[in-house]
């Protein structure tokens, strides 16, 4: 079972495929996007992820990985098929299953002509009921084969973080295997035992529906921590000497709470937390379950940008015509992904208020230009100091390491006013103040 196919070579699928090959599996990656496949086969990752290019080149050189647009070819050359296609949400919050349905059709057609038993593993995030109700149904219809007899089926949620994808794939906190039957679960567990060797993480073997729900429950809980601390930040900011960072440390040391995901900021974004939360709310409602708690998480997130605007107004008054540098456009550091980025939403809100925007990001400028196309008065800069020139304020929106050591003397020389709004608590407030900046930290009381 060391011949593997990975269908969908995006932010999650490509690092997983490359990691499997790195550990000696023979991997065929599939994507419908010909341009992506071409790049990947040349050793260039179409998505940014630290170290991924080096690993990709390594496995290509060792002949352990190749990419193709043909599902049939990949299935012919593999025993286990991981499905990593996108599952975005539609405007009404429900999942858009087009990519998954197409991939299932392709797998079904390919299995029709196959003699041997294959294991299909759904790794895309899908709502409870989807793996059996959509993937299994379509594969059986198209192939004429029977799940459990001719092919196996698992739902195996992925928990990686973009920007730390390879680390998370090599060091997962747990592996959740939702199995259609024991045979399917045994095969998948053996793949992971081979992959992790001595360092095998805890494994949870469960039903497919539980595995599907575990992924949503995990993401909703993480989103809840973020919105919770953001709400506490709003309170702390309004209390003389209040400071959300100290409150987060004070509660985070309690092992029942934990410090992770308690960094106040502009709110959560990206391709997972917001969409998964919306989909879970929709599911809860369809089952007659009151989803107020989940809805409140989204509501806090959606209004968190107002907090940054409030700080800017306190510093600058009316924002019309004010020139503002927004540092960080990716939804978090370490990635070029701007999907549902709160910084992008901030730029849009500021533009709507009539501000003139200067935008900077170490990696995500191209992606940001695409999503901000047509939004008036936004200029893009690849140099932070150029970005800040003539501005009335700097807003640190994403916690890129690059922003930790900014030279405030140099920034101040060319700025119209010396104001910094630190939404991610990475600026040395003392250094900034020494250089004549008025410092505002989100969640921190300012006179
Ligand atoms: P993505 O959009 O970056 O990648 C999806 C890829 O699938 C694209 O390259 C697309 O061209 C390809 N594709 C679409 N239809 C296809 C088909 N029929 N056959 C072959 N390829 C096809 O998405 P992503 O961020 O990698 O997410 C993929 C899944 O993994 C989603 O369900 C997501 O919720 C889940 N997930 C993502 C992350 C993450 O951090 N990005 C983490 C955990 C889970």
TrEMBL record:
Enzyme class label: oxidoreductase
Reactions catalysed: UDP-alpha-D-glucose + 2 NAD(+) + H2O = UDP-alpha-D-glucuronate + 2 NADH + 3 H(+)
Residues holding NAD(+): 31, 36, 87, 125, 162, 275, 339
The protein's Enzyme Commission number: 1.1.1.22
One GO MF term: UDP-glucose 6-dehydrogenase activity
Coiled-coil intervals, chain numbering: none
The keyword Disulfide bond is assigned to this record: no
Pfam families xrefs: UDPG_MGDP_dh, UDPG_MGDP_dh_C, UDPG_MGDP_dh_N
Source organism, top-level taxon: Archaea
GO biological-process terms attached to the record: polysaccharide biosynthetic process; UDP-glucuronate biosynthetic process
Family annotation (InterPro entries): 6-PGluconate_DH-like_C_sf (IPR008927), NAD(P)-bd_dom_sf (IPR036291), UDP-Glc/GDP-Man (IPR017476), UDP-Glc/GDP-Man_DH_C (IPR014027), UDP-Glc/GDP-Man_DH_C_sf (IPR036220), UDP-Glc/GDP-Man_DH_dimer (IPR014026), UDP-Glc/GDP-Man_DH_N (IPR001732), UDPglc_DH_bac (IPR028357)
Keyword tags: NAD, Oxidoreductase
Limits of the UDP-glucose/GDP-mannose dehydrogenase C-terminal domain: 325-429
Binding site for substrate: 159-162, 215, 261-265, 269, 332
Entries under SMART domains matching the protein: UDPG_MGDP_dh_C
Pathway recorded for this protein: Nucleotide-sugar biosynthesis; UDP-alpha-D-glucuronate biosynthesis; UDP-alpha-D-glucuronate from UDP-alpha-D-glucose: step 1/1
SUPFAM superfamilies with a match to the protein in the record: 6-phosphogluconate dehydrogenase C-terminal domain-like, NAD(P)-binding Rossmann-fold domains, UDP-glucose/GDP-mannose dehydrogenase C-terminal domain
Active site: 272 (nucleophile)
Family (UniProt): Belongs to the UDP-glucose/GDP-mannose dehydrogenase family.
The protein's name: UDP-glucose 6-dehydrogenase
Organism: Thermofilum pendens (strain DSM 2475 / Hrk 5)
Lineage start: Archaea, Thermoproteota, Thermoprotei, Thermofilales, Thermofilaceae
């Amino acid at each position: 079972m060391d011949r593997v196919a990975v269908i969908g070579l995006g932010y999650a699928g490509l690092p997983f495929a490359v990691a499997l090959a790195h550990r000696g599996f023979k991997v065929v990656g599939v994507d419908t996007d010909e341009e992506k496949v071409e790049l990947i086969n040349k050793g260039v990752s179409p998505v940014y992820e630290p170290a991924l290019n080096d690993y990709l080149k390594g496995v290509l050189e060792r002949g352990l990985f190749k990419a193709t647009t043909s599902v049939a070819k990949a299935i012919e050359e593999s025993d286990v098929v991981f499905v990593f296609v996108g599952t975005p949400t539609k405007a009404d919050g429900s999942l858009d299953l087009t990519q998954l349905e197409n991939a299932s059709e392709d797998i079904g057609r390919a299995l029709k002509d196959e003699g041997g038993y294959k294991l299909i593993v759904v790794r895309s995030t899908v709502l409870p009921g989807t793996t059996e109700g959509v993937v299994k149904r379509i594969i059986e219809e198209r192939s004429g084969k029977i799940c459990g007899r001719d092919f196996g089926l698992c739902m195996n949620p992925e928990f990686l973080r973009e920007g730390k994808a390879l680390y998370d794939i090599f060091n997962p906190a747990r592996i959740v295997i939702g199995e259609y039957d024991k045979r399917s679960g045994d095969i998948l567990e053996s793949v992971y035992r081979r992959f992790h060797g001595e360092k095998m993480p805890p494994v949870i073997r469960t039903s497919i529906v539980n595995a599907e729900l575990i992924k949503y429950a995990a993401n909703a809980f993480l989103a809840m921590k973020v919105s919770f601390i953001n709400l506490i930040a709003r309170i702390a900011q309004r209390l003389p000497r209040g400071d959300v960072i100290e409150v987060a440390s004070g509660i985070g040391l309690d092992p029942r709470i934990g410090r992770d995901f308690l960094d106040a900021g502009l709110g959560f974004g990206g391709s997972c937390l917001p969409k998964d939360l919306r989909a879970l709310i929709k599911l809860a409602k369809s089952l007659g379950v009151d989803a107020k708690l989940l809805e409140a998480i989204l509501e806090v997130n959606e209004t968190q940008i107002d907090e940054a605007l409030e700080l800017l107004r306190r510093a600058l008054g009316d924002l019309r015509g004010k020139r503002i540098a927004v540092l960080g456009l990716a939804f978090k550091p370490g990635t070029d992904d701007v999907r549902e980025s709160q910084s992008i939403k901030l730029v849009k809100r500021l533009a709507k208020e009539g501000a003139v925007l200067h935008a900077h990001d170490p990696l995500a400028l191209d992606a940001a230009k695409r999503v901000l196309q047509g939004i008036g008065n936004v200029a893009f800069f690849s140099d932070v100091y150029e970005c800040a020139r003539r501005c009335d304020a700097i807003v640190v929106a994403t916690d890129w390491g690059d922003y930790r050591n900014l030279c405030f003397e140099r920034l101040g020389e060319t700025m119209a006013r010396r104001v910094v709004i630190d939404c991610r608590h990475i600026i040395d407030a003392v250094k900034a103040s020494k250089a004549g900046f008025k410092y505002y930290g989100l969640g921190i009381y300012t006179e």
